[in-house]
Automatic annotation (TrEMBL):
Residues 123-245 form the HD domain. This is Response regulatory domain-containing protein. Pfam families: HD_5 (PF13487), Response_reg (PF00072). GO terms for biological process: phosphorelay signal transduction system. It comes from marine sediment metagenome. Residues 76-103 form a coiled coil. Transmembrane segments: none annotated.
Amino acid sequence: EPANLVLLDIRMPGKSGAELLPEIRTCYPDTAVIMITAIAGADVAIQCMKQGAYDYLIKPFSPDEVALSVERALEKRGLELENRDYQQNLEQKVEEQAKENRQIFLGAMRSLVFALEARDSYTAGHSRRVTEIAMATGKKLGLSGEELENLRWGSLLHDIGKIAVDPAIVNKPAKLTAAEYAHIMTHPVVGASIMQPVVRNKEIAGIIEHHHAHYDGGGFNQKLGGNDIPLLARIVCLADAYDAMTSNRPFRDALPRKEALAEIIRETGKQFDPLVAKAFLEIPVADIMPQKKKILIADDEPSIRLLVRSVLSNDYTVIEASDGQEAIEAAQEHRPALIVMDIFMPNKDGLQACFEIKANPTTKAMPVLMLTAIDHELDKKLSAEMGAAQYITKPFSPQELLDAIARLLKNSR
């Protein structure tokens, strides 16, 4: 363990104290050094002090002089160490607080993106799916942990600029006009402007601003091309396009995976970076298209079944039943991961159907989410007694349904 203090004579055989002093200060910066000499020259004293000595004692000296000098040197050393520790702790706390604030802000922005997507059942879950595809591609490319973390946040927030886009255009159930397309394609620049005051990370900002830049220099409102486009933005560009092609839209059905991959290949070197496209095409299907979980929706109202299907179809395989008996049979046949069921239905209501599903050993583990148009405490009590895991009241928002399903699926693992 290094000494707290060294009394060092200037003149010694071999290596002198003057030569040893800078070595001590370099190797043991926390050790205080007091120089001792028989020469009362000011030049020597000044030189020693410049090299980091705390004090300079001239022989002959009294014990009291030594004791006082040592006491002051150790006191000064203690204060310096305390101050350094305080500064380090303060800097660490400031950094931790700044990181926490960034995480809170990014989390809030992510929730805002999910809320924006939930306004349109066709784009619900888009940012999450883009993130999964981008992360799989980034890992294939061998990105570092820090790069992957930036890719994750940039992917989740890439469409944040759509907060400024007219919802009527975002949700338009038909192909966009040229003017509408121009309006919606302002969202990368708008998103970058929104995030600029708080997101200092250039990689995340680059994803938001340039995720529609094409490798060949095209892309609406984009001036970059080739490797001038940030790599992470090039990854998200492909992930975003692939998810758009393989998701349902109001004016068209989703493309089959095979056709979407063929389009990726056709656009390699044009819209997409060849390196990114190659990595993406080498990813196992299960990594970017995991087997969809089945969800059974049982409701006698076709409009409710249509709503649930439109909200869930991009992420889940949806099975429909129009009454309680059909729900029981569908649960046994398809073994869904979760059942969404109305309480009031003909030919066996939801409560009775739930009871029978929970009484059957082959279906009892399936979580049941009950729906009703009446927010009644008795219905909630009966639903729980019949084995339902949760209960939501109509009308419900798409996001409310998605959140409830996500919670139940997580708890059922």
